[in-house]
Write a structure and sequence with these properties.
478 residues; disordered N terminus; Rossmann fold; Protein-Tyrosine Phosphatase, Chain A; alpha/beta
């Protein structure tokens, strides 16, 4: 069943704080969670309860997880629909990352002058610590995690979350003046910020994504650029010198710029030079991390590490701490995750590659013999770019999900495209096409919610089917 991403509120929250009422719509978006940590709406509700708010939560369904607990805590629940009078009576509206604030539903409240913010902005207003915000189209979760590991190894009090793991609202209770909050920030979260003010803001890259939610690429970029909006000359903007759109937006901010360049083109900034990640300056070259310390699969991952080193250096971490933070880190689940080998065929789970750029980088991590599983709910972008990535290294494509016809249209002229009606069929077809000695990579370039709840469920299904295939082949050989 196809679901519409940009107008599917899952939870609606009305709240009263210090005599003022507000409303929140929370959607558990496909890209929103890396693990089953508290989702943003529940975290925001719990924060407001701790601050003495009276909360009314309106839900389109008849029930949801945590409903009993929240009612017992004093939350008033509006279930089975959303009442316009709740919005109109509000003094503050807090929307979830999955709900566009410009939709007509909010117009009566907006006309009354009600402020509309998101959970990220709400949490920011109560934080005591400083924020390191990470945004970009691809690599946010991995880079956020690496920065957190490096700073933790440096002895800092670090809390990692936002669009990955624990929502920022759930970190407020632990926030002290010494805390560093390393926050993954999506375009959905940033577009509803008004005072959100990172000490260090990192923008990794920009490519077509979420065009089923944002009207165009310029709007998508503008939402991400809000990460710089409230910075001052005392703050830092760490930006990708290889991305002209990122550079152009960074130049409009007031923060001091620090450049990194995955291609190594900058004269001053963080790059890979020989066997080291270094900082080039007018005075010379300073070494930070040997390339051999990076245990992540995929060439594009090295660029994420360069960005993380730049942020850690700005934050004052020692090079030894950066190396310690990288030690043993082989990547996140569902991000270029090696799944195993069956009869010489390797399987790689990159289910989090939910846009074309991410899938392209995934495919380009392999030299030859690639069979790519592509498809799902299409979010925009040019799938033909994957044909260029597959040229010379791809054997075939397995098309899945509602985007399968688009995959055929974009790629069938370049190499064979086979359909699969289930993840089991996709794995078996990929195995057959990749034999002998090839690699089957789940690089969907699409969201997951045509077949699955989220990309994590899709990745787990892929891994389960690979394991099932391994057992079947072992039994046949017994």
């Amino acid at each position: 069943m196809t679901r519409t991403l940009w107008f599917l509120p899952a939870l609606l929250l009305a709240l009263t704080t210090l005599g003022a009422s507000a409303w929140m719509s929370v959607r558990l978006a496909d890209e929103y969670r890396m693990n089953p940590a508290p989702i943003s709406g529940i975290a925001a509700t719990d924060l407001l309860l701790r601050k003495g708010a009276h909360v009314t939560l309106s839900e389109g369904r008849q029930t949801f997880d945590d409903a009993v607990r929240l009612r017992a805590a004093g939350v008033t629940l509006e279930l089975g629909g959303h009442r316009a009078e709740t919005l109109v009576a509000a003094d503050l509206i807090v929307v979830s990352p999955g709900v566009p604030p410009e939709q007509p539903l909010f117009e009566p409240a907006r006309a009354r002058g009600v402020e509309i913010i998101g959970e990220l902005e709400l949490a920011w207003r109560w934080l005591s610590g400083r924020v390191i915000a990470v945004t970009g189209t691809k690599g946010k979760s991995t880079t956020t995690t690496i920065i957190g590991r490096m700073l933790h190894a440096d002895g800092r009090h670090v809390l990692v979350g936002g669009n990955i793991g624990v929502p920022l609202s759930a970190q407020v209770a632990e926030s002290t003046p010494d805390t560093l909050h390393v926050v993954e920030a999506s375009s959905f979260q940033l577009e509803t910020t008004t005072t959100f003010h990172p000490w260090i803001a990192l923008w990794l890259n920009l490519a077509d994504d979420h065009l089923d939610r944002h009207p165009d690429v310029a709007s998508y970029a503008g939402a991400k650029a809000r990460v710089f909006a409230n910075q001052t000359a005392d703050d830092w903007a760490v930006v990708n010198a290889d991305d002209p759109v990122v550079m152009r937006h960074a130049e409009t901010g007031a923060a001091r710029q620090v450049l990194f360049s995955p291609s190594g083109v900058v004269r001053e900034g963080f790059v890979v030079a020989g066997d080291w990640i270094v900082r080039r300056t007018a005075a010379g070259v300073e070494r930070f991390v040997p390339v051999s310390a990076v245990e992540l699969a995929g060439r594009h991952m090295l660029g994420n590490v360069v960005a993380a080193v730049a942020v850690a250096a700005v934050a004052g971490a020692a090079p030894d701490s950066m190396r310690a933070g990288l030690a043993g880190f082989t990547g996140l689940e569902h991000v270029m995750e090696p799944v195993g080998e069956v009869d010489g065929v390797h399987f790689v789970n990159d289910s989090k590659a939910t846009n074309v750029e991410a899938a392209r980088r995934s495919i380009e991590s392999f030299e030859t013999g690639v069979v790519a599983i592509i498809g799902g709910h299409f979010k925009g972008g040019d799938l033909r770019e994957l044909g260029d990535a597959l040229a010379g290294r791809g054997r075939a494509v397995v098309a899945i999900g509602t985007a399968a016809p688009l995959v055929h249209e974009a790629l069938a002229a370049r190499l064979p495209v086979h359909d699969a009606a289930s993840m089991r069929e996709a794995v078996h077809t990929g195995y057959r096409l990749a034999s002998p000695s090839g690699t089957v990579v789940l690089a969907p370039a699409c969201a997951s919610f045509d077949w699955f709840r989220d990309y994590a469920e899709r990745g787990r299904a892929f891994k389960a089917e690979v394991e099932r295939l391994r057992r079947e082949r072992a039994d046949e050989g017994a």
